[in-house]
Write a structure and sequence with these properties.
two-stranded antiparallel ribbon; mainly beta; globular; 120 residues
Length: 120
Amino acid sequence: MMSSIDQYAKICGVSTYIQRGSIYAIDVRTANTGLQFNMDTDHGLIGSPEYFEDEISETADNQEIKETRKGYKITSLLEHRCMTGARVNLKSKDVTGTFHVLEGQHSFNGTDFLTEMTVI
């Protein structure tokens, strides 16, 4: 079922995600989660943000739809507020701006609790 929801969401240009037991299909850049946090070296940013471009293409009604997503992959010390749709005020030596979390993951590497997130 989620794969079908994902397919239709891509055609519509939105993201799908499960958060706190609910399924969402929304453009994360317009999501109103009310969550916002700063991300810089004083607030847990590790290393430099890594730029990415992903081309997404789907076919609907025999017509191919393409979208290019641009953003950054960020690693930080554990940021428990990181969730899809949250607003991130990013400041590093290479990148400064406001972005929205597309996806994220919390992990423990044996010594540090980390958050890895993709922002657009």
